[in-house]
Write a structure and sequence with these properties.
This protein has 299 residues and is mostly helical. It has helices at 2-50, 77-125, 149-162, 172-185, 189-202, 208-222, 226-239, 246-259, 263-277, 283-296. Helix content is 71%, strand content 0%.
Length: 299
């Protein structure tokens, strides 16, 4: 009887001990599962930041192959599997986070350089107002009406601009760009500039923005304002490097810099154009680039 009591007690103690040893392993598995889920979410968030316009690079993480342990072996394989996943995910997350920090630093440097360049070009584009000329024209005689050629010319121009048809196809962004193009094509450059700038501001998140800002730069260039053209064209390339007119903006930026007597900067722009878009450049843009290189005497 006594021996049976001790045997029963020993079995109970053994079962309790097994439960006590199993509990930390289960808790550790739950903790690791939570940790893995959190790191995977953070990794996806970082990848979306690094690759906003494309498919993120999937981490090269594979789940270790599991084997069936022999009977009586402690069940530690799932915990080892989760630990390996955690280590791999943390390593991948650290690598991508480093890329984000490096890209942010480079972008900050680029923005600082551009802001400095933009300030310099704005100063060049805003000449001091000439001193008021002393009038030598005598006042008209009483009872006569002075001629107003300037007013007549202004009225004629307004009528000509009003004659430019505004398209109405139902595509608001496309119609706004087309109207700006028609004004530019008719050589009404100031009116085209105002229309195209308004189009870029209103539809900056659409594909039309790349075409509108590129044409805005060209309108400044055709209007004899290469400094303003260089700012508009550079901003279009910087903000929309994959836009429809990004290569065009670089090509015309080179032309604007040549007009500003900055051939060395123009050569850098042409080198960027060749490096980024060389394989996809149209024959027209390539010919324009080669002429520009010759003009700027690029080596």
């Amino acid at each position: 009887m006594r021996n049976a009591f001790f045997a029963t007690s020993a079995l109970a103690l053994g079962a309790s001990a097994s439960m006590l040893f199993a509990m930390p392993a289960a808790a550790q598995s739950v903790s690791l599962d939570t940790r893995v889920d959190r790191i995977e979410k953070e990794l996806r968030a970082v990848q979306r930041k690094v690759f906003p316009a494309g498919t993120p690079v999937e981490p090269e993480i594979t789940r270790p192959a599991t084997t069936t342990p022999p009977p009586g072996t402690p069940s530690s394989a799932p915990i080892a599997d989760l630990t390996a996943r955690v280590g791999a995910l943390e390593s991948q997350l650290a690598s991508i986070t480093g890329q984000v920090e490096e890209n942010s630093y480079k972008l900050k440097q680029l923005e600082e350089a551009f802001n400095k360049y933009k300030a310099e070009q704005t100063n060049v584009a805003a000449p001091a107002a000439p001193p008021a000329a002393r009038s030598t024209v005598s006042a008209p005689a009483a009872g006569t009406r002075p001629a107003a050629p300037a007013a007549e010319a202004s009225d004629t121009r307004k009528a000509a601009v009003a004659a430019i048809e505004r398209p109405e196809t139902g595509d608001a962004a496309g119609d706004a760009y087309t109207y700006g193009f028609r004004l530019w094509d008719a050589k009404f450059y100031p009116e085209a500039q105002a229309q195209l700038k308004a189009t870029v501001d209103k539809y900056s998140d659409t594909s039309v923005a790349s075409r509108a800002q590129n044409l805005l730069g060209r309108a400044y260039l055709d209007d004899g304002k290469p400094a303003l053209a260089s700012v508009a064209l550079y901003e279009n390339y910087q903000k929309r490097p994959r836009g429809d007119r990004a290569p065009d903006s670089l090509a015309y930026l080179g032309e604007a810099l040549i007009q500003l007597k900055k051939p060395a900067d123009a050569c850098k722009v042409y080198a960027e154009l060749e490096q980024v878009y060389g394989a996809t450049l149209s024959a027209g843009l390539r010919g324009m680039m080669e002429k520009g290189r010759t003009k700027a005497k690029c080596s």
